[in-house]
Please model this.
Amino acid sequence: MLYNFVSEDEIKDRQDDLKKKEPHLKVKDLQTYFPISKGLFGKVTDYVKAVDNVSFDVYPGETLGLVGESGCGKTTLGRTILRLIEPTGGDIYFEGKSIKDVQGEDMRKLRKDMQIIFQDPYSSLNPRMTIGEAIIEPMRVNGVLESDFQRRRRAVELLETVSLSAKQFERYPHEFSGGQRQRICIARALALNPKFIICDESVSALDVSVQAQVLNLLNKLKEDFNFTSIFISHDLSVVKFMSDRILVMNKGKIEEIGYAEEIYNNPQSEYTKKLINSIPKGDLAAIRNAMLKRSQGR
Model:
């Protein structure tokens, strides 16, 4: 949402609008446990409770920030929501329907509407596949558009949307910088025109100036493509700039959830206070200045 670029009245109006809508995504008492200890006859005696009875809603058009230290369970939560990891218990509702037990063709259709942008853009791309083919592939698999000619044209449009060019269509991932590769992954995620996207630490491997470029791009695309999102990061300074609301996670549980400004300026949990105090001085200002500079330069 980039609250620093809008007035307090605009923030309040947006918050009021969100409350009036039905949730796009509803997570209810979600559990994801991993067995770690087995007793006699192989019976499991203990678990890692990566996601432990977590419940929250995400509203249409909202960006919900999910923040916490490494190992807190936030990435597992994101992947469980998308059914990349199967839940142990609880339920997930997308557009009012439970998706916990969806299988087969119904799951394939759901994948079109729910996408993810991973942390490492290089490992997300096939090094033997040109970036153009990487964008076309999900469209071909899901039957989007009628021919490869149309898909190629759409792929070029998406490359240009993320500030790359048609001339780069036949190039391979190793020929691009980290920031450019992440733009390619964003273009591929948008190829199916999803309604919901999870950004999983999608800028954590980039330096501050490149982070600002990608974050600005994500915000612009969110407006252009009208998708709802969860933005996952260990960096509260980045999450603050991107989110309408923030969910703070610790040891598989929710510490607190609230509007971004409220969480950042008036945290209730001691854990959240420690996260804020751990932000290196200058990081917030550096990101703010980089994003403001690019915003003014458009």
In short: Residues 288 and 296 are 12 Å apart (CA to CA). The first strand starts at residue 25 and ends at 38.
